[in-house]
Write a structure and sequence with these properties.
It contains 10 helices and 8 strands. The strands form 2 sheets. It has a 4-stranded antiparallel β-sheet with strand order 1-2-4-3. A 4-stranded mixed β-sheet has the order 6-5-7-8.
Length: 338
Amino acid sequence: MDVYEAVASRRAVRGFTDRPVPMEVLERVLSAAAWAPSGSNLQPWRVYVLTGEPLAELKKRAGERVAAGDPWDEREYKMYPPALKSPYRERRSAFGAQRYGALGISREDWEARQRATVANWDCFGAPAALFCYIDRDMGSPQWADVGMYLQTVMLLLRAEGLHSCPQMAWSVYHRTVAEVLSPPDGLILFCGMSIGFEDVTVGHARTGRAPLEETVTFVGGSAPQSHAARPRRLLPGVAVVFGAGHTCDRSSTTQKPIHRTLPRSTHAYKKIADGRIRSSGLDRTVIYPTKPIHGPAKGTHSVSDRLPPKGDPTISRADTAAFTHQAAHGRGGSTAAP
């Protein structure tokens, strides 16, 4: 898995199987993540990894607090500003609608929303969890360093075929976590992180991202492609699957990186692509198989279609961009690939 694919396939997974995560894999990931950048090489993170009985004990204690209605521990940092302004307020609201909508929970069903939230403190069923602390004397730049470290961990987990979910929710039970871990007094619990193999039967929504022009400004140098020519976003109800072997007659295929500009309706990991298509409600799916037989697969196919693997193993970025552009503009109501 290359870096682009790791970034595109990383998301906060909220449903894991009980398949154990090998300790040697966790050690390999965390050894490599130590190379994450930090100002003056302070490396301000302090990490604890729980599996087996210690994790089960923590889940039990947290669950008992939830069941008893215990109030949350005093906050050691603010998760969000007290009043989010635009566009952050709208982005957070859209996330909530997508998150609970994927679970079939309406905005008014607070009881069901609470049940979904409680799953945080069971690590969504994950068999491994990481808890990240930072020294309370550190400032904002060091907190940013911790964020870069955690992102590095999550990308390395993807390279190992694992998923994760970073969870600030654990900070509201930081005293319970400390009872199990016994960290030094000078540390603040920033977050937990559930780690494991995804349970593909759990519904989810792939949250979107702001268009590039909302978050990035290019100054000087060659101007980027015009908005009319640059790939934007796919039509609603369209997914693109690269190397989706499970979808394409269960063939074993080679994974190909997603073009970096493809938007939120994209699925790349072949083992879960089929499940994603079935659970997402998408009504059209464009499939790019990667087994080298005749020529590039083209066109659109309904969700029920299962094509034999055809196509060239090399999918150029030019082809990808051209297809995405066509899909974004809906030429003649068609999303045919080039």
